[in-house]
Amino acid sequence: MAARHSSRSGVFLALALGAGGGCTAYSTQKNLPLDCNVTNAYQLRIVDKLNELTLPPQAPTQPFWTTADHSVDAGGTGSMYDAIAPITDGSLCGTTAALEFTGAHNDDWGSLSGYSTWGTLDASAYEGLAFWARSPGNTSKSFTMLFGDPNTYSAGAVDAPPMAPYNCKNYPSADGGVSSSGPIVDPGTGQVLSSGSLTAPSPPDACNNYYQAVLTVTNDWQFYTIPFAQFQQTAEPNRVPNADLATVGTAPGTSLITSALMLFELRFPREAVIDLWMSNLAFYRKAPVTDAGTDGAIDAPHP
Fold first, then answer.
1. How many whole angstroms separate alpha carbon 96 and alpha carbon 116?
2. Threshold 0.90, pTM exceeds
3. In the 8-state DSSP scheme, what is residue 295?
4. Is 35 helix (H, G, I), strand (E, B) or coil?
5. Is residue 161 within 8 Å of residue 214, measured between CB atoms?
6. DSSP class of 60
7. Please, how many CA atoms are within 13 Å of residue 142, restricted to the half-sphere of its CB?
8. Are residues 207 and 169 in contact, defined by beta-carbon separation less than 8 angstroms?
9. Which among 224, 300, 229 is positioned nearest to 39, based on CA atoms?
10. What is the pLDDT at residue 173?
């Protein structure tokens, strides 16, 4: 496995580690017309606009995407890239650039990209996650979003006792790394979106049982809102709450501590052919209702 920090200055991060193939099960998705007014129904707290081709001088203090991929093939052709890129086929409601993820041929556990430098981000006043996204062409349309909080994420060393603000503990995995939470499976299709190296149940105080939700996007730009309630853990001994991890958050329908979000990742299936574009990553809450009608947004399925 390899990891890099992206400066998001338009330079791709190449991680060539393996080979494989890929195809999409979603190439016939119906595309909906772009409605730039859809965000008027929400109050948004922008986390990252994801559209700055040239970052300002304070960029080193901003969040960075960490990108990784893995393949078992010895040919070294697997890849995962992320970079701010111009939107050459038009604009997204006046925005002319967006963050593009591309990758292919990762035939082991797949690939990931995300933030690991949030600190403790307080989103407890909001209902969930929102962003614009598209995945054009003959590409995989599904991916998994993961949140880490003090019960599931720790920057400490393996076997070190938890330290504030962390509640959980890292344990070594079978391959010498940090313990995994096993495979992530799309409950709708049964597709394995990410594999893990877990060989035994995790201890109740173990980290890495992240809160996860699966999303399927379309070829064209759409606005997505994913409520925090949709982010759930796998049913393992370290599922929250338990005797060792008793603290829970206040968001309805989930134990995720939304007042202390510490990690956000996107994980892509093994063998996926990836061309995912994202813009205006934000937290959302519904705006006060001023008139009748619907907002027209593409809401992720609620539990």
1. 27
2. no
3. -
4. coil
5. no
6. G
7. 22
8. yes
9. 224
10. 64
Alpha carbon distance 153, 207 (integer Å): 5
Cα distances from 288 to residues 14, 43, 280, 283, 285, in angstroms, run: 45, 9, 21, 16, 9
Distance CA 281, CA 44 (A): 9
Q: Quote the tokens at residue 163.
A: 């330290």
Angle 275-256-250 (CA atoms, 0-180°, nearest 5)?
Answer: 130
Of the candidates 288, 2, 253, 266, the one whose C-alpha atom is nearest the C-alpha of residue 135 is 266
Domain ranges of the chain: 2-299
Q: Within 10 A of 204 (CB to CB), how many other CB atoms are there? A: 16
Sorted by sequence, the CB contacts under 8 Å of residue 265 that are 6+ apart come out as: 112, 113, 114, 115, 145, 146, 148, 210
pLDDT digits (tens, 9 = 90+) for 208-264: 999 999 999 999 999 999 999 999 999 999 999 999 999 999 999 999 999 999 999
In CATH terms, the fold of domain 2-299 is: Jelly Rolls (2.60.120)
Which residues partner with 63 through β-bridges?
A: none
Question: Residue 103: beta bridge partners?
Answer: 80, 274
Identify whether the C-beta of residue 109 lies closer than 8 Å to the C-beta of residue 269: no
Bridge partners (DSSP) of residue 67 are 4, 113
